[in-house]
Amino acid sequence: MTIQRICCMGAGYVGGPTMAVIADRCLDVQVTVVDLNEQRIAAWNDADLSRLPVYEPGLDAVVDRARGRNLHFSTDVDGAIADADMVFISVNTPTKARGLGAGQASDLRWVEACARQVAKSARGHTIVVEKSTLPVRTAEAIRTILEAAQAPLAEGEAPRTFAVLSNPEFLAEGTAIRDLETPDRVLIGGEDDSSIDALAGVYGQWVPGERILRTNLWSSELSKLTANAFLAQRISSINSVAALCENTGADVREVARAIGTDSRIGPKFLQSGPGFGGSCFQKDILNLVYLCRHFGLPEVADYWESVVHLNTWQQHRISRLVVQRLFGTVTGKRLAILGFAFKADTNDTREAPAIRIAHDLLEEGAQLAIHDPKVESAQISRDLRQDAEVPDAGTGMTAKTLSGQGAWWAAGSVEQAVAGADAVLILTEWTQYRTLDWKDLSARMRRPAWVFDARAVADPNQVRAAGLTLWRVGDGAQ
Ligand code: NAD
Ligand code: UGA
Predict the structure, then answer these.
(1) Which of 127, 167, 259, 383 has the fewest CB atoms in 10 Å of its CB?
(2) Domain 5-215 identical in fold to domain 217-478
């Protein structure tokens, strides 16, 4: 079976870039990405490519080549499903906020809604592909919903048939296009060879055959959760060692290099920082924890849960030490936060370490001037659940800070953020923060002044030469 028409449900950080690359590489496949969110679809169709809803290096060029040719963005969900011979489900699967499994289990309501909509609108034979990250055995539920809907839609039509595949996505934000164009592997889990061959045929147009792995459905679903759990575990491991380094005179970067050169350990994902953020690591581990408890494996659940606990601890540890170093109080003090996105090269702030750290400091009554090259002020407002409040030019205070409460505003430049600040906190590793002119910035700050470099991107010698007191994550020499 050769795939000619693809529909992708969900035009988010995964659906948009993934389908753009498929369309770019498979000229004979028509790809339609649909979403219930009209604004998001309008943004994907915006003639101004700088306004695409997802910021990813290289994405604009790919969309520019394919959009209108064989890549389409639409809100006509039913129409796109009816036309498609393959439907990707790439919708959000956040942690449940309420009810059974709240705080751990995945909320599958959007996935189930997709399955029901495919059941309602599909025609002929349709291969349904799980692209979202899902609890192991979700394919069973999707299959049950689809099997209940095999009757023809119109009299005289042949019965409708369905196959379900699992094809988890391993892209990382900020490098999504590179990850999609040259993936380490593509994983396809399924039960019938012809469906697996059909999807492998799509990827095979640009991915070498030996990188297309085939497994059963359940191994594929579980591999995605496991990959994220292993990656996150490395970050919690190195962050735990960073805290020990700070107390013992060791340097976490030297330790990371020393252990990373062991080919069994490898050098990647050993960067100590303010803890992992992003929409998936925490959610996927908590999902794994929930599954382990569900299947009667409490020790395994506790093991993985500790990875999340350590991460939360690391974020609070950083806000706590900022308060401690600033003489035990930040009330009314100005702090410049450099970076709000959960990592560089994305405008995504979901679960960003900056949210928890900024929130802690606001609780302490600090005034935060937040700078990020890609995150919009409105997004920061939503994340902090507090509107921005620009300080009075004369007093340098806001109404809130005058009464001892925390306040924040978005600074248009790094210089603006640090003006009059007691401390700078670097929370995202944007390239521009690696080459800051510390002499110039130092002159704009109130003395004594600190730099808390949670990403270890600033040149320590330059920071110290500028008369600033430096704290770097995992640096025991300070
Ligand atoms: P997202 O929130 O950016 O996008 C999901 C989109 O689905 C939203 O625009 C939403 O409006 C849309 N949607 C919801 N229900 C719908 C429906 N019934 N019909 C059509 N559209 C619908 O989420 P995302 O970051 O793209 O993640 C999607 C999935 O991929 C999640 O399961 C996530 O765990 C997984 N994943 C994400 C990443 C990542 O880097 N963000 C990487 C790998 C896997
Ligand atoms: C991660 C995985 O890397 C992807 O393979 C996966 O597809 C994706 O989750 C997902 O399922 O959503 P992503 O969260 O986009 O990708 O970005 P990462 O590069 O993994 O970074 C996650 C967090 O860990 C960031 O906050 C980053 O700053 C932090 N990190 C990463 C470190 O603190 N140290 C490191 O060495 C690496």
Answers:
(1) 259
(2) yes
Report residue 46: phi and psi, to 5°. Answer: -60, 135
Tokens read off for 295: 């299947």
**pLDDT (tens digit, 9 = 90+) per residue, 88-133?**
999 999 999 999 999 999 999 999 999 999 999 999 999 999 999 9
* Fold topology of 5-215: Rossmann fold (3.40.50)
How much distance in Å is there from the Cα of 352 to the middle of ligand 2?
A: 11
Which of 220, 343, 350 to mutate to test ligand 2, by most ligand atoms within 8 A of the CB atom? Answer: 343
CA distance 28 to 377: 41
| Whole-Å CA distances, 345 to 13, 17, 145, 227, 427 | 13, 14, 39, 22, 13
CATH architecture of 217-478: 3-Layer(aba) Sandwich (3.40)
User: Coil, strand, or helix at residue 239?
Assistant: helix
Known catalytic residue at 280: yes
74: which strand partners? 34
Question: What CA–CA distance (Å, rounded) separates 69 from 277?
Answer: 36
Condensed to tens digits (0 to 9), the pLDDT of residues 410-448 reads: 999 999 999 999 999 999 999 999 999 999 999 999 999
Q: Is the pTM of this model over 0.90?
A: yes
Length of the chain, please?
A: 478
Domain ranges in the chain?
5-215, 217-478
